[in-house]
Amino acid sequence: MSDDDRDYALGGSASTEKIPAPVLSYEPPMPKSYNPPIGLIGCGGITDYHLKAYKAAGFNVVAFADINEENAKKRRDDFYPDGKVFTDYKKVLEIDEIEVVDIATHPPERVQIIEDALKADKHILSQKPFAIDLDVAERMVDLAEQSSKKLAVNQNGRWAPHFAYMRQAVAEGIVGDVFSVHLDVHWDHGWVADTPFNDIPHVILYDFAIHWFDMINCFLGGKKATRVFASNVRSPSQKATPPLLGQALVEFEGAQASALFDADVKFGPEDRTFVAGTEGTLSSVGPNLSVQEVTLSNEKGIAKPDLKGTWFDEGFLGTMSELLTAIEEDRDPYNSARSNLNSLAMCFAACQSADTGEPVVPGTVRRMPGK
Fold it and tell me: Are 28 and 159 in contact, with CB atoms under 8 Å apart?
């Protein structure tokens, strides 16, 4: 047996000494004094998490709009009783004091709302997935930049504590040049069977996996993927209509990534993330999205940071607080719509590949398949 083989058999030659974890700024940023009136357009179920985060942070939501007035009233009554309620979103845009709007409608309806909001001189936080058409997405990004307004996307996974710590470690060069990113999630997503999500053909590779394609994009520094190969299949026990098992292999120049989704796992759920670079490795594992233990390994040893927060608190806080901070500091938000274009391109390519059984170059599929 060679020395290299012996090292592998014994678990490698790197140090296993416990070392202090680097102190990184992974928590959501907060504006120093900027706290403008905010309008919420679209008051569906997910906005409960938006508003819980905003209320806890002391953000100032003053108007609620939804075509179903009861939805808007409920969100208003539960969180900001003094807010105004409308069934026409344009009434929100007409309120001069509102500087920021959180647009949480579905993608097709959002296009016109985003355009109208930019014309009304508002900064925007858009729900994810940002768009179902790359040409439209690029046009909205250009329109926002021409309007000198910030357009951010609610890719809240970027501020999940484990993802946020890992991406910050990557950004600060702690693991060197990243060449390998692998993410896998094993959980029960069967609840979609009794909801409108049951009608989304790629509910896993599109609606859910956009967070993981986005994290691949973050960990690899916005590099453009060269090819994606994906597949999906129905589980023998699933009740939902769309396939709940999906996977994607993503190629880059000098790097590779994968995302694996088993969404019909009723026992022993697990969520794993692995990021390898030339100077270290980051990994995270836990039973779900919020309970995660991060490990940093390098030549000095092994570090385990003690992280605070959960995805469904800090994640939803982070998208809005980053936008507000970016407005205050007059810079691009980290979750800018432009930074999300690569994530969308990977996602669309994966769905097309799953449909055709062929590898796809991201960016060549301009519209989400089936939409």
Answer: yes
Pick from 225, 182, 180: nearest CA to 350: 225
Task: Kindly report, residue by residue over 168-218, the tens digit of the pLDDT.
Answer: 999 999 999 999 999 999 999 999 999 999 999 999 999 999 999 999 999
Summarised one tens digit per residue, pLDDT across range 222-244 is 999 999 999 999 999 999 999 99
DSSP 8-class letter at 268:
S
The answer, as to whether pTM is greater than 0.90, is yes
Query: Locate tokens 């432009």: which residue?
Result: 338
The whole-angstrom separation of Cα 169 and Cα 311 is 18
Which structure tokens are listed for 153? 């996307």
Q: Contacts from 298-301 at CB under 8 Å and sequence distance 24+?
A: 298/14, 298/174, 298/175, 299/14, 299/15, 300/15, 300/17, 300/19, 301/15, 301/16, 301/17, 301/18, 301/19
Beta carbons within 8 Å of 153's beta carbon, 6+ residues apart:
125, 126, 127, 128, 130, 319, 335, 336, 337, 339, 340
Beta strands in 287-370 (DSSP E): 293-298, 301-303
Question: What does the alpha-carbon distance between residue 49 and residue 242 come to, in Å, rounded to a whole number?
Answer: 26
- Which residue, 81, 70, 83, is CA-closest to 38? 83
CATH homologous superfamily, domain 174-307+337-356:
Dihydrodipicolinate Reductase; domain 2 (3.30.360.10)
CA–CA distance, 322 with 315 (Å, rounded to integer): 11
Query: From CA 181, how far away is CA 85, in angstroms rounded?
Result: 44
Residue 259 structure tokens? 């995302």
Question: What interhelical angle do 47-57 and 316-329 show, nearest 10?
Answer: 60
Q: What is the average per-residue pLDDT within 148-154?
A: 98
